[in-house]
Amino acid sequence: MVGKICGTGSYVPAHFLDNDDLAKIVDTNDEWIRERTGVVRRHVIEEETVVSMAVAASRRALENSGIAPAELDLILVSTFSSETVLPCAACEVQREIGAVNATAFDLNAACTGFVFAYNTAQAYIASGMCQTVLVIGSESLSNLLNWRDRSTCILFGDGAGATVLKSEEGVLYRPVTHSDGNRGNALTCMSRHRKDWLPGEEDLDSYMKMDGREVFKFAVRQVPEVILEVLKEADISLNEVNYFILHQANKRIIEGVARRLEQDIDKFPMNLDEYGNTSSASIPLLLDEMNHKGMLKTGQKLVIAGFGGGLSWGAACLEW
């Protein structure tokens, strides 16, 4: 059995900061950010939280799928930025949407998180343990940013995306995933421990820090390799793939992957100009946008690929 995506949903805060807004905070400008990242603006929470965004995206995905919350067997939330540790975000979502029969837990694999969560859902379905799974990526990254750090604050945004997977007869393509903890220092964010926290002190370790050059080199090298690896496992050629749906980290990274694979850039949809890097929310956010635009047709072959903190990276093939 395979989990087929039968519904998608997303949510982004109404409030946003464009590049000109950031130029008032740090030494940058619209042209510099667009040229190096492709980001034009990013949506930022005001009253929203990881849970509230996940709930809104989930309700839209369930409505799109025609599946009732009580039919869900499992809820997975990929996040590393939830405002609460306990209860986990997935249990909070379960409560809010009334998914009384679902097991719920969170998964943290940073920007690769949605791919890992999607693969986890497929494993549960293939084993027969679950029939219907809600997979969510939700991030409030603005809470983790040092807004004086130009290397990070220009990149990231907040949002959530959700997909509903339902067990059907079909081909389950084997996913490919990797992690390399030896390179984890390229992207870090430490939690705040009260014993180290003194009122009035700025705990810079609690903000996201990134070695942008190292992450860029890692992504441009590893993402094409993992895509080729997963296609080999599935016995699918590059030219058979309709869309490569990559984590929306940086326009230059995506363009670099397309060049290395010698594929038309039109097969690599992007929406990071509007949302920036939303970490584990980026792939389901893009899937929902493509779904509602009518870009996704039954039988199309897609590759989803994520990469980021850990360092971790992975890809999965699926049929729409």
Automatic annotation (TrEMBL):
Active site, renumbered: 111, 247, 277
Region described as ACP-binding? 248-252
Q: Which reaction does it catalyse?
A: 2-methylpropanoyl-CoA + malonyl-[ACP] + H(+) = 4-methyl-3-oxopentanoyl-[ACP] + CO2 + CoA; 3-methylbutanoyl-CoA + malonyl-[ACP] + H(+) = 5-methyl-3-oxohexanoyl-[ACP] + CO2 + CoA; malonyl-[ACP] + acetyl-CoA + H(+) = 3-oxobutanoyl-[ACP] + CO2 + CoA; (2S)-2-methylbutanoyl-CoA + malonyl-[ACP] + H(+) = (4S)-4-methyl-3-oxohexanoyl-[ACP] + CO2 + CoA
Q: Which GO terms describe its molecular function?
A: 3-oxoacyl-[acyl-carrier-protein] synthase activity; beta-ketoacyl-acyl-carrier-protein synthase III activity
Per UniProt, the keywords (alphabetical) are:
Acyltransferase, Cytoplasm, Fatty acid biosynthesis, Fatty acid metabolism, Lipid biosynthesis, Lipid metabolism, Multifunctional enzyme, Transferase
Source organism, top-level taxon: Bacteria
Q: Name one GO cellular component term.
A: cytoplasm
GO BP, one annotated term: fatty acid biosynthetic process
The protein's matches in InterPro entries, at most eight in alphabetical order, are given as: ACP_syn_III_C, ACP_syn_III_N, FabH, Thiolase-like
- Which NCBIfam families does this chain map to? fabH, PRK09352.1
According to its UniProt record, which protein family does this protein belong to? Belongs to the thiolase-like superfamily. FabH family.
Which protein are we looking at?
Answer: Beta-ketoacyl-[acyl-carrier-protein] synthase III
Q: Which organism is it from?
A: Muricomes intestini
Taxonomic placement: Bacteria, Bacillati, Bacillota, Clostridia, Lachnospirales
